[in-house]
Structures are given as structure tokens and as C-alpha cells.
Amino acid sequence: MPGPGLIQEYEAAISARLPARIGDELAGGLDDTYRSYLDQGLSPDAAARAAVAEFGDPQTVIAAFTRSSPSRRLARQLLVIGPAVGACWAAVLIASRAWIWPVPILVRVLAGVALIAIIATLVTAAFARRYLLARRAAAAACSGLAAVDTLAVIVVLVSVPSVRWPVLLALPASALRAGFIARAIRSALIV
Questions:
Q1: Dihedral, CA atoms, 182, 186, 190, 191, nearest 10 degrees?
Q2: pLDDT value at position 22?
Q3: Which residues contact 59 (CB under 8 A, 6 or more apart)?
Q4: Is 100 exposed, middle or buried (0-12, 13-18, 19+ CB in 10 A)?
Q5: Are 123 and 141 in contact (CB under 8 A)?
Q6: Angle (CA) 83 89 92, round 5°
Q7: Which CA distances in Å does 118 have to 8, 35, 149?
Q8: How much of the chain is helix, strand and coil, in % rounded to 5?
Q9: How far separated are the first and last CA of the chain, in Å rounded?
Q10: What is the rounded average pLDDT of the residues 151-168?
Q11: Quick one: which of 5, 137, 70, 127 has its CA closest to 13?
Q12: What is the 3-class SS of 82-125, one letter each residue?
């Protein structure tokens, strides 16, 4: 497809797979490059081909943006932080003898399934090959982590009769993770 049609096809490919803000920036740059080649005396067809060649294959550009996605980076950081926070909460549960708490088995199973689902969603976000999938998965995982941390804090504060040393580790660990998510979420998810 020659001329401006080639530019529009390129822009459509980019905008379908990247957030609007990034797609708009790329489209603006591509249009500027196209106009620059027109100003140098190239025909519309030659200017379009030269502009697209300078920008590179749309799939390569999309893949590069996806690899450097803030959502993927956030998910990977949370996967690194997660085991430390989880170990703190495991220590609380062990020290508090959580297995004797009057919690129905269904609730225990649902909590385990929710935690596994959150981890799977983080893994999906961390290794997604599509930008928008990484962003959506990271958003879901961050929401899930916020809910799990909030629930853990509430349950332990209500269920643990006296403050034990693991609680003094687990509460700040969850608070630090929540703060980290709050700081990172704007750049990772609101793009």
C-alpha cells in the first residue's frame, strides 16, 4: 500500500497493540518523518516507505515496547518481593498455630486458590508478549495483592490474641509492599 495508506496501516498496527498514548506518540513521529521526507523532495510513496523503514517493522517496535513495559517490570519486582512477604505471613500463621483457628476448610481452600491465581497473574504479566495483556494482568495482580494483604492484616489482628514477633515483621512487610505498589502503579498501569 503506497503513500499515506502505508503510514495509516503502520499506525493502525501500532495503535491496536499499544496504549493510546504510546501509539499517538509513535504516529506523530512517523507523520513528522514522512513529512520530512516529502520536504526533501521524495514522492509520497517513496517518503512513506522511507519513513516506515526508518521506524522499523511494526512488530519489532511493538515487541520492544512490550519488553520494556513498566507493567512487566512491576510484576517481576513483585515476584521477587513476594516470597519474603509470604515468609513473614507464614511465620505468623505458624507461630499463631493457625491450623487450630476456627476457619472453615472452604475459606482456607479459597484463600490458597486466590493466592495461586495472583501469582499466576503476576507471572503472566511478567512474561507477557503483548503490552496490553501485561498491563491488564499487572493491574489484576496488584488489586489481588492489595486485597490479600488487607485481609491478612485484618484476620491476624482479629485472630491473634497477643502480638507475636512474626506479626511485627509481617505487618510492615505488607505495608511496604502496598507502598511500593502505590508508587509504581501510576507509571506501570496508567499509561
A1: -150
A2: 87
A3: 13
A4: exposed
A5: no
A6: 145
A7: 39, 47, 12
A8: 85, 0, 15
A9: 31
A10: 77
A11: 5
A12: HHHHHHHHHHHHHHCCHHHCCCCHHHHHHHHHHHHHHHHHHHHH
Q: Provide the CB-side half-sphere exposure for 139 (13 A, CA).
A: 11
Would the pLDDT of 1 be above 50? no
Give the integer Cα–Cα distance in Å for 138 and 134.
6
**pLDDT single digits (tens) 133-142:** 998 999 999 9
Residues 6 or more apart whose CB falls under 8 angstroms from that of 58 comprise 10, 13, 14
Name the residue with cell 485481609: 151
- C-alpha dihedral over 138, 141, 142, 147, to 10 degrees? 170
For the chain, what is the mean pLDDT? 87
Residues 75-82, mean pLDDT to the nearest whole number: 94
Q: How many angstroms separate the CA atoms of 148 and 150, rounded?
A: 5
> Which whole number is the average pLDDT over 41-55?
91
DSSP symbol at 165: H
- Unique residue bearing C-alpha cell 495483592: 145
Q: What is the pTM of this model?
A: 0.77
Q: Identify the residue whose cell numbers are 510484576.
A: 75
CA angle 77, 136, 138 (to 5 degrees): 15
